[in-house]
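Re-running XRE family transcriptional regulator to confirm reproducibility after the cluster update. Everything else is unchanged from the original entry.
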Amino acid sequence: MESGIRCGRSIGDHDHREPSMSRQPPDPRDVIAGLLGDDRLLTACAERDMGSVFRLLNGRGVSTRRIAAAVDITQGRLYDYMNGKSRVEKLALFEQIADGFHIPGHLLGLARRPWEPPAAEGRQAMQLPPDGDELAAMGAFRNADRQTGGGRLYGAVVRHLVDRVAPRLVDTVSGPQVFAAAAALTEMAGWMAHDSGQDELAARHFARALPLARTPGDWPLAAHVAASSSHLALQTGDAAGAAQWAQAGLEFARQGPRIPVLSALLHTRQARALAAVAQQAPALRALGEARHDLEASAGVEHPWLSPFDAAALASESALILRDLDRYDEALIQAEQSVALREAGRTRSLALSRITLVGIHVRRGDLDSAVSVGHELLTTSPTLGSVRVVHQLDDLRHLLEPHKEYGPVRDYLGRFEDQRRARMLLLADIITPRGGTPT
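Result of re-run:
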Protein backbone atom coordinates (compact mmCIF):
# COMPACT_ATOMS: atom_id res chain seq x y z
CA MET A 1 0.00 0.00 0.00
CA GLU A 2 1.20 3.48 -0.68
CA SER A 3 2.72 5.33 2.24
CA GLY A 4 4.27 8.67 2.94
CA ILE A 5 1.11 10.69 2.22
CA ARG A 6 0.17 12.03 5.63
CA CYS A 7 -0.89 15.65 5.59
CA GLY A 8 -3.62 17.59 3.82
CA ARG A 9 -1.07 19.50 1.73
CA SER A 10 0.45 16.31 0.36
CA ILE A 11 -2.92 14.75 -0.29
CA GLY A 12 -4.13 17.72 -2.28
CA ASP A 13 -0.99 18.09 -4.37
CA HIS A 14 -2.74 16.77 -7.45
CA ASP A 15 -5.50 19.35 -7.08
CA HIS A 16 -3.03 22.19 -7.69
CA ARG A 17 -2.14 21.02 -11.15
CA GLU A 18 -4.80 22.15 -13.57
CA PRO A 19 -5.15 19.84 -16.56
CA SER A 20 -4.42 21.37 -19.90
CA MET A 21 -7.25 22.00 -22.32
CA SER A 22 -6.06 19.10 -24.48
CA ARG A 23 -5.83 16.59 -21.66
CA GLN A 24 -8.87 15.30 -19.81
CA PRO A 25 -8.45 14.29 -16.15
CA PRO A 26 -8.58 10.52 -15.63
CA ASP A 27 -11.90 8.86 -15.03
CA PRO A 28 -11.70 7.24 -11.54
CA ARG A 29 -13.53 4.18 -12.87
CA ASP A 30 -10.83 3.69 -15.48
CA VAL A 31 -8.17 4.09 -12.80
CA ILE A 32 -9.83 1.44 -10.62
CA ALA A 33 -10.19 -0.90 -13.60
CA GLY A 34 -6.46 -0.67 -14.12
CA LEU A 35 -5.80 -1.46 -10.45
CA LEU A 36 -7.97 -4.60 -10.09
CA GLY A 37 -4.88 -6.75 -10.34
CA ASP A 38 -2.81 -4.53 -8.02
CA ASP A 39 -2.07 -6.00 -4.58
CA ARG A 40 -2.30 -2.56 -2.99
CA LEU A 41 -5.90 -2.10 -4.07
CA LEU A 42 -6.85 -5.68 -3.23
CA THR A 43 -5.29 -5.42 0.23
CA ALA A 44 -6.90 -2.04 0.90
CA CYS A 45 -10.32 -3.41 -0.09
CA ALA A 46 -9.85 -6.60 1.94
CA GLU A 47 -8.96 -4.49 4.98
CA ARG A 48 -11.74 -2.01 4.21
CA ASP A 49 -9.14 0.75 4.26
CA MET A 50 -10.88 3.30 2.08
CA GLY A 51 -8.29 5.97 2.90
CA SER A 52 -5.71 3.93 0.99
CA VAL A 53 -8.12 3.48 -1.93
CA PHE A 54 -8.63 7.24 -2.06
CA ARG A 55 -4.86 7.82 -1.92
CA LEU A 56 -4.33 5.40 -4.80
CA LEU A 57 -6.84 7.32 -6.90
CA ASN A 58 -5.39 10.71 -5.93
CA GLY A 59 -1.88 9.48 -6.68
CA ARG A 60 -2.99 8.68 -10.21
CA GLY A 61 -4.31 12.12 -10.92
CA VAL A 62 -7.90 11.93 -9.71
CA SER A 63 -8.55 15.15 -7.81
CA THR A 64 -9.82 15.06 -4.25
CA ARG A 65 -12.74 17.21 -5.43
CA ARG A 66 -13.78 14.53 -7.88
CA ILE A 67 -13.25 11.69 -5.39
CA ALA A 68 -15.40 13.44 -2.78
CA ALA A 69 -18.14 14.20 -5.31
CA ALA A 70 -18.23 10.61 -6.56
CA VAL A 71 -19.06 9.26 -3.10
CA ASP A 72 -21.06 12.28 -1.89
CA ILE A 73 -18.84 13.39 1.00
CA THR A 74 -17.12 16.68 1.79
CA GLN A 75 -13.46 17.20 0.96
CA GLY A 76 -12.79 17.75 4.65
CA ARG A 77 -14.18 14.30 5.47
CA LEU A 78 -12.20 12.83 2.56
CA TYR A 79 -8.96 14.30 3.97
CA ASP A 80 -9.74 12.68 7.32
CA TYR A 81 -10.06 9.29 5.63
CA MET A 82 -6.91 9.79 3.55
CA ASN A 83 -4.86 10.93 6.54
CA GLY A 84 -6.05 8.03 8.68
CA LYS A 85 -7.87 10.25 11.16
CA SER A 86 -11.07 8.26 10.65
CA ARG A 87 -12.26 5.18 8.77
CA VAL A 88 -15.30 4.45 6.67
CA GLU A 89 -17.63 2.25 8.73
CA LYS A 90 -21.16 2.68 7.41
CA LEU A 91 -22.42 0.07 4.98
CA ALA A 92 -24.18 2.68 2.85
CA LEU A 93 -20.93 4.55 2.28
CA PHE A 94 -19.10 1.38 1.26
CA GLU A 95 -21.86 0.80 -1.28
CA GLN A 96 -21.50 4.38 -2.57
CA ILE A 97 -17.75 3.90 -2.95
CA ALA A 98 -18.21 0.59 -4.78
CA ASP A 99 -20.79 2.09 -7.12
CA GLY A 100 -19.01 5.43 -7.59
CA PHE A 101 -15.72 3.85 -8.67
CA HIS A 102 -16.97 0.47 -9.96
CA ILE A 103 -15.14 -1.59 -7.37
CA PRO A 104 -16.58 -5.14 -7.63
CA GLY A 105 -18.82 -5.81 -4.66
CA HIS A 106 -17.05 -8.97 -3.50
CA LEU A 107 -13.80 -7.04 -2.96
CA LEU A 108 -15.53 -5.02 -0.23
CA GLY A 109 -17.59 -7.88 1.17
CA LEU A 110 -20.74 -6.62 -0.55
CA ALA A 111 -23.30 -8.38 -2.69
CA ARG A 112 -22.87 -8.12 -6.46
CA ARG A 113 -23.56 -4.55 -7.47
CA PRO A 114 -26.37 -3.79 -9.97
CA TRP A 115 -23.86 -2.59 -12.60
CA GLU A 116 -21.74 -5.77 -12.43
CA PRO A 117 -22.23 -8.35 -15.20
CA PRO A 118 -23.09 -11.89 -14.04
CA ALA A 119 -19.49 -12.98 -14.61
CA ALA A 120 -18.09 -10.34 -12.28
CA GLU A 121 -17.82 -12.78 -9.38
CA GLY A 122 -16.31 -15.45 -11.59
CA ARG A 123 -13.56 -15.46 -14.17
CA GLN A 124 -13.79 -11.77 -15.10
CA ALA A 125 -13.50 -10.29 -11.59
CA MET A 126 -10.83 -12.79 -10.58
CA GLN A 127 -8.88 -12.08 -13.78
CA LEU A 128 -8.50 -15.79 -14.43
CA PRO A 129 -6.14 -16.96 -17.15
CA PRO A 130 -7.23 -18.56 -20.42
CA ASP A 131 -8.92 -21.95 -20.34
CA GLY A 132 -6.55 -24.84 -19.72
CA ASP A 133 -4.13 -22.97 -17.44
CA GLU A 134 -5.67 -24.43 -14.29
CA LEU A 135 -2.62 -23.89 -12.10
CA ALA A 136 -2.79 -20.17 -12.74
CA ALA A 137 -6.57 -20.21 -12.21
CA MET A 138 -6.15 -21.94 -8.88
CA GLY A 139 -3.48 -19.43 -7.88
CA ALA A 140 -5.86 -16.56 -8.61
CA PHE A 141 -8.65 -18.15 -6.57
CA ARG A 142 -6.26 -18.95 -3.73
CA ASN A 143 -4.89 -15.42 -3.51
CA ALA A 144 -8.37 -13.91 -3.42
CA ASP A 145 -9.55 -16.46 -0.85
CA ARG A 146 -6.73 -15.56 1.54
CA GLN A 147 -7.82 -11.91 1.57
CA THR A 148 -11.60 -12.02 1.25
CA GLY A 149 -12.59 -15.46 2.56
CA GLY A 150 -14.27 -18.29 0.70
CA GLY A 151 -17.87 -17.25 1.27
CA ARG A 152 -18.08 -15.09 -1.82
CA LEU A 153 -15.74 -17.15 -3.99
CA TYR A 154 -17.36 -20.57 -3.66
CA GLY A 155 -19.81 -20.04 -6.51
CA ALA A 156 -17.08 -18.82 -8.84
CA VAL A 157 -14.93 -21.92 -8.20
CA VAL A 158 -17.87 -24.26 -8.74
CA ARG A 159 -18.80 -22.50 -11.99
CA HIS A 160 -15.20 -22.77 -13.15
CA LEU A 161 -15.23 -26.49 -12.40
CA VAL A 162 -18.53 -27.07 -14.19
CA ASP A 163 -17.92 -24.83 -17.18
CA ARG A 164 -14.18 -25.17 -17.77
CA VAL A 165 -12.82 -28.32 -16.14
CA ALA A 166 -15.56 -30.97 -16.18
CA PRO A 167 -15.92 -31.04 -20.01
CA ARG A 168 -12.20 -31.79 -20.33
CA LEU A 169 -12.51 -34.90 -18.14
CA VAL A 170 -14.20 -36.70 -21.03
CA ASP A 171 -12.35 -35.32 -24.04
CA THR A 172 -9.52 -37.17 -25.77
CA VAL A 173 -6.79 -34.56 -25.69
CA SER A 174 -6.48 -33.28 -22.12
CA GLY A 175 -4.65 -36.27 -20.65
CA PRO A 176 -4.73 -37.62 -17.09
CA GLN A 177 -3.48 -34.43 -15.45
CA VAL A 178 -6.87 -32.80 -15.92
CA PHE A 179 -8.07 -35.18 -13.18
CA ALA A 180 -5.48 -33.70 -10.83
CA ALA A 181 -6.68 -30.22 -11.71
CA ALA A 182 -10.27 -31.28 -11.07
CA ALA A 183 -9.28 -32.85 -7.74
CA ALA A 184 -7.40 -29.76 -6.55
CA LEU A 185 -10.16 -27.35 -7.52
CA THR A 186 -12.83 -29.63 -6.03
CA GLU A 187 -10.86 -29.72 -2.78
CA MET A 188 -10.63 -25.92 -2.89
CA ALA A 189 -14.40 -25.71 -3.36
CA GLY A 190 -14.71 -27.90 -0.25
CA TRP A 191 -12.62 -25.49 1.79
CA MET A 192 -14.67 -22.55 0.56
CA ALA A 193 -17.88 -24.35 1.49
CA HIS A 194 -16.38 -24.97 4.94
CA ASP A 195 -15.46 -21.30 5.18
CA SER A 196 -19.10 -20.53 4.37
CA GLY A 197 -20.30 -22.70 7.27
CA GLN A 198 -21.58 -25.48 4.99
CA ASP A 199 -19.66 -28.46 6.37
CA GLU A 200 -21.85 -31.18 4.87
CA LEU A 201 -21.30 -29.67 1.44
CA ALA A 202 -17.57 -29.42 2.16
CA ALA A 203 -17.47 -33.13 3.04
CA ARG A 204 -19.11 -34.00 -0.27
CA HIS A 205 -16.51 -32.00 -2.17
CA PHE A 206 -13.65 -33.70 -0.34
CA ALA A 207 -15.24 -37.11 -1.00
CA ARG A 208 -15.36 -36.31 -4.74
CA ALA A 209 -11.83 -34.93 -4.81
CA LEU A 210 -10.18 -38.09 -3.47
CA PRO A 211 -11.00 -40.46 -6.38
CA LEU A 212 -10.18 -37.69 -8.86
CA ALA A 213 -6.70 -37.45 -7.31
CA ARG A 214 -6.21 -41.22 -7.31
CA THR A 215 -7.24 -41.63 -10.96
CA PRO A 216 -3.91 -40.29 -12.35
CA GLY A 217 -2.03 -41.87 -9.42
CA ASP A 218 -1.35 -38.52 -7.74
CA TRP A 219 -0.71 -39.85 -4.24
CA PRO A 220 0.52 -36.57 -2.75
CA LEU A 221 -2.68 -34.85 -3.87
CA ALA A 222 -4.73 -37.73 -2.46
CA ALA A 223 -2.86 -37.31 0.83
CA HIS A 224 -3.59 -33.60 0.79
CA VAL A 225 -7.31 -34.26 0.34
CA ALA A 226 -7.14 -36.71 3.27
CA ALA A 227 -5.57 -33.94 5.38
CA SER A 228 -8.48 -31.67 4.49
CA SER A 229 -10.97 -34.37 5.46
CA SER A 230 -9.11 -34.78 8.77
CA HIS A 231 -9.46 -31.06 9.50
CA LEU A 232 -13.17 -31.11 8.67
CA ALA A 233 -13.80 -34.17 10.85
CA LEU A 234 -12.14 -32.47 13.81
CA GLN A 235 -14.13 -29.26 13.28
CA THR A 236 -17.37 -31.26 13.35
CA GLY A 237 -16.43 -33.03 16.60
CA ASP A 238 -15.21 -36.34 15.18
CA ALA A 239 -11.70 -36.67 16.64
CA ALA A 240 -11.51 -40.38 15.86
CA GLY A 241 -12.40 -39.73 12.23
CA ALA A 242 -9.83 -36.94 12.10
CA ALA A 243 -7.12 -39.32 13.32
CA GLN A 244 -8.15 -41.95 10.78
CA TRP A 245 -8.03 -39.48 7.90
CA ALA A 246 -4.60 -38.23 8.99
CA GLN A 247 -3.31 -41.81 9.08
CA ALA A 248 -4.79 -42.52 5.65
CA GLY A 249 -3.08 -39.42 4.34
CA LEU A 250 0.28 -40.55 5.71
CA GLU A 251 -0.19 -43.90 3.97
CA PHE A 252 -1.05 -42.19 0.67
CA ALA A 253 1.99 -39.93 1.02
CA ARG A 254 4.33 -42.92 1.45
CA GLN A 255 3.31 -44.16 -2.01
CA GLY A 256 4.52 -41.01 -3.73
CA PRO A 257 7.66 -38.86 -3.75
CA ARG A 258 8.85 -37.48 -0.42
CA ILE A 259 7.37 -34.03 0.18
CA PRO A 260 8.40 -32.85 3.66
CA VAL A 261 5.81 -30.06 3.90
CA LEU A 262 3.06 -32.55 3.11
CA SER A 263 4.30 -34.90 5.84
CA ALA A 264 4.44 -31.95 8.21
CA LEU A 265 0.82 -31.08 7.42
CA LEU A 266 -0.36 -34.66 7.97
CA HIS A 267 1.54 -35.09 11.25
CA THR A 268 0.02 -31.80 12.41
CA ARG A 269 -3.47 -33.07 11.59
CA GLN A 270 -2.65 -36.23 13.53
CA ALA A 271 -1.44 -34.18 16.50
CA ARG A 272 -4.59 -32.04 16.46
CA ALA A 273 -6.80 -35.13 16.59
CA LEU A 274 -4.80 -36.70 19.42
CA ALA A 275 -4.74 -33.47 21.43
CA ALA A 276 -8.52 -33.17 21.12
CA VAL A 277 -8.87 -36.41 23.13
CA ALA A 278 -6.09 -35.47 25.59
CA GLN A 279 -3.56 -38.02 24.27
CA GLN A 280 -0.65 -35.86 25.38
CA ALA A 281 2.41 -37.99 24.66
CA PRO A 282 1.27 -39.21 21.20
CA ALA A 283 0.13 -35.70 20.26
CA LEU A 284 3.49 -34.19 21.22
CA ARG A 285 5.31 -36.93 19.29
CA ALA A 286 3.27 -36.18 16.17
CA LEU A 287 3.89 -32.46 16.59
CA GLY A 288 7.61 -33.14 16.89
CA GLU A 289 7.46 -35.14 13.64
CA ALA A 290 5.74 -32.21 11.95
CA ARG A 291 8.44 -29.79 13.06
CA HIS A 292 11.16 -32.17 11.93
CA ASP A 293 9.53 -32.59 8.52
CA LEU A 294 9.10 -28.86 8.00
CA GLU A 295 12.76 -28.25 8.82
CA ALA A 296 13.88 -30.82 6.24
CA SER A 297 15.49 -29.19 3.24
CA ALA A 298 15.23 -32.04 0.75
CA GLY A 299 12.04 -32.96 -1.03
CA VAL A 300 9.91 -32.54 -4.12
CA GLU A 301 7.57 -29.61 -4.68
CA HIS A 302 4.04 -30.37 -5.84
CA PRO A 303 2.13 -27.83 -7.94
CA TRP A 304 -1.36 -28.56 -6.62
CA LEU A 305 -0.73 -28.56 -2.87
CA SER A 306 -1.57 -25.48 -0.83
CA PRO A 307 1.37 -24.09 1.15
CA PHE A 308 2.12 -25.24 4.69
CA ASP A 309 4.78 -23.05 6.25
CA ALA A 310 6.21 -21.93 9.58
CA ALA A 311 3.27 -19.60 10.20
CA ALA A 312 0.76 -22.40 9.61
CA LEU A 313 2.71 -24.75 11.87
CA ALA A 314 2.87 -22.11 14.62
CA SER A 315 -0.89 -21.58 14.35
CA GLU A 316 -1.62 -25.30 14.57
CA SER A 317 0.93 -25.80 17.35
CA ALA A 318 -0.83 -23.15 19.44
CA LEU A 319 -4.12 -25.04 19.10
CA ILE A 320 -2.52 -28.39 19.91
CA LEU A 321 -0.76 -27.07 23.01
CA ARG A 322 -3.90 -25.20 24.08
CA ASP A 323 -5.95 -28.41 23.90
CA LEU A 324 -3.28 -30.11 26.01
CA ASP A 325 -3.57 -27.31 28.62
CA ARG A 326 0.03 -26.25 28.02
CA TYR A 327 -0.91 -22.58 27.90
CA ASP A 328 2.52 -20.99 28.33
CA GLU A 329 3.91 -22.95 25.38
CA ALA A 330 0.74 -22.30 23.40
CA LEU A 331 1.12 -18.56 24.00
CA ILE A 332 4.60 -18.52 22.43
CA GLN A 333 3.31 -20.30 19.31
CA ALA A 334 0.21 -18.11 19.03
CA GLU A 335 2.28 -14.91 19.24
CA GLN A 336 4.64 -16.26 16.60
CA SER A 337 1.72 -17.13 14.34
CA VAL A 338 0.33 -13.59 14.58
CA ALA A 339 3.75 -12.05 13.94
CA LEU A 340 4.27 -14.19 10.84
CA ARG A 341 0.77 -13.45 9.49
CA GLU A 342 0.64 -9.68 9.98
CA ALA A 343 1.89 -8.93 6.45
CA GLY A 344 -0.01 -11.72 4.73
CA ARG A 345 -3.25 -13.62 4.76
CA THR A 346 -6.20 -11.77 6.22
CA ARG A 347 -8.28 -14.75 7.31
CA SER A 348 -5.30 -16.58 8.80
CA LEU A 349 -4.37 -13.45 10.77
CA ALA A 350 -7.92 -13.19 12.13
CA LEU A 351 -7.93 -16.86 13.17
CA SER A 352 -4.48 -16.54 14.76
CA ARG A 353 -5.60 -13.51 16.77
CA ILE A 354 -8.73 -15.36 17.91
CA THR A 355 -6.51 -18.19 19.17
CA LEU A 356 -4.19 -15.73 20.91
CA VAL A 357 -7.06 -13.95 22.70
CA GLY A 358 -8.44 -17.31 23.86
CA ILE A 359 -5.09 -18.40 25.26
CA HIS A 360 -4.71 -15.12 27.17
CA VAL A 361 -8.17 -15.68 28.70
CA ARG A 362 -7.31 -19.24 29.71
CA ARG A 363 -4.10 -17.98 31.33
CA GLY A 364 -6.09 -15.39 33.26
CA ASP A 365 -4.43 -12.43 31.55
CA LEU A 366 -7.55 -10.42 30.74
CA ASP A 367 -5.72 -7.18 29.97
CA SER A 368 -3.66 -8.87 27.24
CA ALA A 369 -6.78 -10.61 25.97
CA VAL A 370 -8.58 -7.28 25.59
CA SER A 371 -5.55 -5.63 23.96
CA VAL A 372 -5.26 -8.33 21.30
CA GLY A 373 -9.05 -8.42 21.05
CA HIS A 374 -9.16 -4.80 19.92
CA GLU A 375 -6.55 -5.59 17.25
CA LEU A 376 -8.70 -8.54 16.19
CA LEU A 377 -11.71 -6.32 15.54
CA THR A 378 -9.67 -4.28 13.05
CA THR A 379 -8.73 -7.39 11.06
CA SER A 380 -10.76 -6.97 7.86
CA PRO A 381 -14.30 -6.58 9.22
CA THR A 382 -15.64 -7.40 5.73
CA LEU A 383 -13.92 -10.77 5.56
CA GLY A 384 -16.39 -13.17 3.90
CA SER A 385 -15.71 -16.05 6.28
CA VAL A 386 -18.53 -17.62 8.27
CA ARG A 387 -15.90 -19.79 9.95
CA VAL A 388 -14.32 -16.66 11.43
CA VAL A 389 -17.73 -15.43 12.64
CA HIS A 390 -18.37 -18.75 14.38
CA GLN A 391 -14.97 -18.65 16.08
CA LEU A 392 -15.64 -15.07 17.15
CA ASP A 393 -18.89 -16.27 18.74
CA ASP A 394 -16.96 -18.96 20.63
CA LEU A 395 -14.53 -16.28 21.80
CA ARG A 396 -17.39 -14.11 23.04
CA HIS A 397 -18.73 -17.03 25.10
CA LEU A 398 -15.26 -17.49 26.57
CA LEU A 399 -15.09 -13.83 27.62
CA GLU A 400 -18.63 -13.41 28.96
CA PRO A 401 -17.94 -14.96 32.40
CA HIS A 402 -15.41 -12.13 32.92
CA LYS A 403 -17.67 -9.23 31.92
CA GLU A 404 -17.71 -7.85 35.48
CA TYR A 405 -14.19 -6.64 34.73
CA GLY A 406 -14.57 -3.18 33.17
CA PRO A 407 -12.17 -3.52 30.19
CA VAL A 408 -13.78 -6.85 29.25
CA ARG A 409 -17.26 -5.35 29.53
CA ASP A 410 -16.29 -2.40 27.35
CA TYR A 411 -14.67 -4.70 24.82
CA LEU A 412 -17.74 -6.93 24.62
CA GLY A 413 -19.84 -3.85 23.86
CA ARG A 414 -17.60 -2.94 20.94
CA PHE A 415 -17.49 -6.61 19.96
CA GLU A 416 -21.29 -6.72 19.65
CA ASP A 417 -21.31 -3.64 17.42
CA GLN A 418 -18.73 -5.23 15.13
CA ARG A 419 -20.56 -8.54 15.12
CA ARG A 420 -23.81 -6.91 13.99
CA ALA A 421 -21.96 -5.22 11.14
CA ARG A 422 -20.35 -8.50 10.09
CA MET A 423 -23.67 -10.34 10.18
CA LEU A 424 -25.26 -7.72 7.93
CA LEU A 425 -22.47 -8.11 5.41
CA LEU A 426 -22.69 -11.92 5.51
CA ALA A 427 -26.49 -12.10 5.54
CA ASP A 428 -26.64 -13.57 2.04
CA ILE A 429 -24.22 -16.44 2.74
CA ILE A 430 -24.33 -17.22 6.46
CA THR A 431 -25.83 -20.48 7.65
CA PRO A 432 -26.90 -21.05 11.27
CA ARG A 433 -24.82 -23.69 13.00
CA GLY A 434 -26.45 -27.02 12.39
CA GLY A 435 -28.78 -25.47 9.81
CA THR A 436 -28.97 -25.46 6.06
CA PRO A 437 -27.76 -22.81 3.64
CA THR A 438 -30.11 -19.90 3.08
